[in-house]
User: What shape does this take?
Amino acid sequence: MALNFMDVFYRAYLGEPPNDALSKSMANSVVTQAIQGGIAPYQEYLLQGSIVDTSRDVLLHRLQGLCDNAEGMPQKFQDHEMVFMMRGNTPQQIISFRVRHSLHQRQNWVLRYTGQTEIGDKNRQTLVRTCCDVATSDNVVQFLNEMGFRLDNEFIAKGFFFHKGRMRVTVSKIYKILQHDNLDNLEQLTMSHLVELSVVAPVGQEQIGEDMKAFAEQLKPLVQLDKIDHRRLQTF
Amino acid sequence: MNYGPNYSHLHNLDNTYREFVQFDVFAYPVPEGKSGQQVVDSLQRQVELLGAVKSGNFSVDCETYQSNLQNDMIFLTFSPQRLVHILHNTEQPATCFSILDTGTCLMADVMFEIFMNKLTHSKSAFYQQRKGFKIESKGQRYELGDFFIKIGSVSLMSNFKGILVEVEYCPCVILNDCWNLLKEFMQSFMGNIVEAPPPYLKNKADTPYAPSDTVHQYLEHFNNFRKTVPIGQPSR
Amino acid sequence: MAVAGVNVSVEAVLENQIQEVSLDGQEIYVPPLSMSENLTKQAHKIDFYRDETEEKGKPASEGEQDSGEKTLTPFQPSLWPWDSVRNKLKAAFTEVSVLLDVLNIVKEKHYMVLDQVSQGSQDSMESRAESRPGVHMLSKKRSLLSAANILMAGSERLRRSQSQAESTIKSQSDFHIELLKLRQNWRLRKVGSAILGDLSYKSAGSRFLQSGTFEVVKCSGENSIEQEGSAPRMLEVVIPSELEGVAYIQVEVKPVPDAMDLTSAILKMPAGLGQVPTDAYWQQKLEVAQNVLFCKELFAQLAREAVHAKTSSPHLVVGNQIITNVFPGIQLSIVLCHSTGKDKKGGSGPHKLEHNHVLEHSLHQLLREVHYKAINHPPPHPVIGTLGVSKRRRMAGPSGMSRSELQQMMESESLLEQIIKQTRHEVLRLRTMKVLDRLSARLSDPLVACHWSCLNSSLQSVVKVMISSYGYEYRMMSQSFILMIGVGSIKAITKEGRTFCLSFEGQDLEDLVMWQLSQHHTIVAQTLGKMMGWHLLSHSGNCGVGDMETVGTASSIMLAPPGHNRVLSVKSGPSRGMKVCVKSLQKEGLPSLSAVTDPKWKVVGGDFQDIDLDKIDGRNVAAKLELLMATLSKAEPH
Assistant: This one.
């Protein structure tokens, strides 16, 4: 398991009660360092691919064989993602935050910021982007609206979750929300499932890409996980 | 010991101690902060005489961000400037409280600050940090049976501003059920300055108490303290 | 003949060919050839056909055949010496011309088309062969026969190999089939030319450093282990030496010996117990080795925890044993027994088998649980949430979890702590059982019955203790209380809802039971009184008067029969026993005053008389009391 930043933080923060000023400042330095550096202390390594609906179950079986949580049924998830944007006077002035809300555990909301995706050269095995996930209370939508953010788009992802070590594999289907208030009135966007292999890790752990590539190789005939250049996709 | 949601009442001693302190500072050439420290010391002695035991330090800090007026496009819907207060309380070490001037309080992981950083440091600075607005209350934490007492001295940019006393009664979450008990307890070491529940809690007296209520009270007091310094005055 | 040493020179004879030897011995030589004659002779030697046929690539046999015919002619007398050369050249020219024509005809296809040779033509060898059906049939028959022979040979070889395999399948079982079977159960990989396997629990979540690599080797024919009764195998596994033998974890809970000898703490391995037969099947070998690894990991984990634990009484780690005190006077020892089976110590004495199976089993379970948790994370919701943290922990920030809650959540119990807790509970449960059993065997008057809950956890169990009088179980409520046996203490809840916390000492429980028993008697009296219509005058659970009890307090009850002419007093204490007194109505008691309205007050005062319960018939106190009360309520006072 990766060194969990939050663990370090809590441990430092909760240290010895009578004299925790020192440990507190130590813990704070991690956050402040990250803030002053202007970067999130985490990076997401990502590979994407897709599989047609009819072959999904084959892939799920394969993943069950490969991944750690192999016992029992594949774990399902159903998330509602909303993309919020704040725009300035010029087109360059734009910032977007994502809010992801679990429809299985409805009290769980996550606010996510992802930086610019770096394709990198051929030596780099995966997409890399800075990434910051923060669990928040349920009024995050209201909060963002009052801050000046506006809802840009939203969708629902239903699918399955696997993990292998710290690699996270999701096989999910993206749905369009036809009615804004009704999350049950959905329409599928495509006849295929999105397959994502991702690792969120502290900055500077490039060898993860190799592990991910090796894992992706094992899924090869079924699904081709690759670096998808989102900017090129947008030009189509 | 497993405490449920805590009830806490925060009482500001501004009417007496704060004015007295400021008067002292400005009128007499006594080293700054010493008289404030004296008040704190006498309060601590009082509390210790009651039998309370020290249980470490505490601190509550607050920083304020304001929306950037140059980007007024996005704030067409809001007439005034938007303010975001980011508060931390050592009592909830895993939480970052962000309170908007509308009263919305978002509770998130401590990493939430990275998001504020994104809003202030990106190409389009939608928000900016208010200079000279960092304020915090820190001091000794005491335990006496089911009561937690926190005596904190407030400092704005390392200038002593006053004293805040927080009293928490753990077994109860409804203010009305325990207000008289709390009042009596507080009067035992603070005298008759405590008469009515704080204004923020008046209309919440029958609802279960939440950690955000403590932070809200601190914020109200912090704002009062800040008003004593004219905005725009260069801080040291 | 030639004598050795004589030189013989071999040289070409330079003279001309001898034509004739005359009778006088004179040799007549053939005159040497002139230049032109010589040329003619040489020219004769040229075989023009040969060159020609070679150039055209025609079958040599045809050319030779032709040249054979031509060579018949050369020694015909000719008019001039170049005649034969000219003829040959001419013939060659004719041939070439004909050939050219044929080629032209074939190529141009204006004049002639080459077609399959008809049946009747007698030009070529093939057509000749085909024309004769006998030959044709013969050739076909021959080729069929050869094909059949090949097939027959093949099938024969197959049959032979099959029969060979059948007869020697056990002795010659295939290495690769074995390898296939091995692969179905164990992780294998190929490194270079060797096949390595892994029997560690790493893929199941273990983080133990010791590797469990084993090697798969192929047994060749001669060194495959031959044995009567079982088949020799082609596949053998080589297990690292540190994992050889048999290991198990032995847990013992025992009273602390008076003088503890640390040297004896290192447990002697029972010989003969841990023996894997060297010829065991690989599956068995690997399983045993895996168990060794598991036990080693378990012990290493426990030893590490024992060393790092900060407790008031330090745990002792000596050699392969961990000793710790669970209660004063009771110690828990966890021993790693690992016998490689090589060092055969004969005199290790008889093996004690008083080890605790339950705790051993739960130790194994605890480590498996650690393994399971290491790789099975709860799924994050939403799916982008942090991996590997609990659901509650994920909500710590948004729900504003307090410091103490966070601290609590981060605390995790070590294996050792958990097993010590379980041990404590088990010791306590056994003690409770013993105390209750002893009491219920000893006491017959109120009966003590225990109902153990069949559902209990490894850290808590519940027993309900019922106190009743024989014959009165259904007619009156019996006294009962519940004992909740925890880790270090017992919580007792009586029927009226009072809670007592008892220490781990058995005496506490015994005192409680004795006290409850004494209370039982007054309650019996009260119940009987109620059934007979008596009036309850007073009832005290903790009677403050009278002789002091050594333990607990006495209880007392005063009852009056329906006529209010007597008072029955029962006092019962845990150590002093039972005392029953009766006071009779005194007619000349108090003078009748106008202030006294109720005649019952006239009974106040007077002397109590002891009643010897032993003299009253009845098999137990309840029966005696019933009899007594029945008499008292009937009898008219004198």
Confidence is low (pLDDT under 50) at residues 53-72, 222-230, 344-351 of chain C. Residues 518 and 574 of chain C are 5 Å apart (CA to CA). The first helix of chain C runs from residue 35 to 45.
